[in-house]
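Dear Dr. L.,

I hope this message finds you well. Following up on our conversation about the binding site, I have prepared a predicted three-dimensional model of the protein together with glycine. For your records, I am including the exact sequence and ligand specification that went into the calculation, followed by the structure tokens. Please feel free to forward this to your student if that is useful.
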Amino acid sequence: MAELMVGLGERSYPIIIEKGYLAKVGQDLKMRQVGNRYCIIADDRVADLYGRTLLQGLTDAGVKAELITFPQGEANKTLATVAALASKLARLGFDRKDAIIALGGGVSGDIAGFVASSYMRGIPFVQIPTTLLAQVDSSVGGKTGVDLPEGKNLVGAFYQPKVVYIDIDVLQTLPAEELLGGLAEVIKYGVIRDRDFFEFLRKNRVAILQLDSDCISKMICTCCEIKAQVVSEDEREGDVRRILNYGHTIGHAVEGASDYSIIHGLAVSIGMVAAAKLAVLNNLLTEGAAQQIVQILEDYNMPVTVPVGLDRERIKQYLLADKKTISGVVFFVLPTAIGKVIVTDDVGSEQIDKVLNSTATASS
Ligand code: NAD
Ligand code: GLY
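The resulting structure of the complex is given below.
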């Protein structure tokens, strides 16, 4: 078992990573007493797969719990879903001494976390992430919220969980594309902060793709360590936390312009290559280092160029509408070496055009 801390003073919390831990969460919560009673919030698919195991473990430990669900998918990450879940909590008589358990991927975590932040002006919550993306990113750091028709994650709150439980066994049922999407975020950590980790991901690709337990545990641990460190330094994304958005500026725009047919992580893969190319064009990164970024993503079978059929003008419209764009100025996280990045707004629109239209090689 590995246990890390997200250091945020009185709001610090542990991340517990262990194989097969889902059934043991009840015993741990009995000891921690985060709430008198727990409401597990999961999407319908995750509830079918893992709801019973979690509930049984809680019941066996003498912890009172209910399970409520919402329909899976980003399209349901809405205020309407928040309202429906909050009404269910009220009808079940949940009060301020009770707590929420977010069980599932980033969609469940973001919704359940936001419900926790606002129900009765805030009740405690626990994260049990079940996608790789959620285990290495969204369950740690306290960003919660929902989408509006006008854009993604436009309503939300910074609200930290009391504890994060990561059971790597649940990754066995994850669809291959979702695993790959999570791995793009994993590679991101190597590029932004840790050259050795980047090498580890390069060398252990086969074992990682086969979900070798030791490799996956080490990998998730390293990602959570980096994320915890960054969040401890800058909880509210004033400065340092922006580095976590490497690949996300163009990635989000590609995701939106594809009407979300390209999943988030794979759009981030395209975005990471685009940012590496922008760094080369600005003499911040060597072509060799950019090529290493392209190569690792290609080796993992991730997309590295914007699909030919995707409207470039639409991508640029999304860039301007992004939350990270301030007063029309688009911010980019650009690598300066493997393991180091800077945040800059000093990127010309002709350079953006060039990378959106370029092919797979780093120098093109
Ligand atoms: P998701 O939660 O929709 O999960 C993807 C699919 O996998 C869903 O259909 C889900 O039912 C299914 N699933 C989940 N766990 C499974 C398992 N173990 N086995 C089989 N199927 C499983 O999507 P996601 O990719 O986890 O998260 C994406 C969301 O996360 C986006 O809304 C994004 O905005 C958000 N996000 C938030 C943060 C943050 O810091 N809060 C960071 C990154 C992304
Ligand atoms: N996923 C980016 C962040 O948590 O800041």
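In brief: The longest helix spans residues 213-233.

With kind regards,
A. P.
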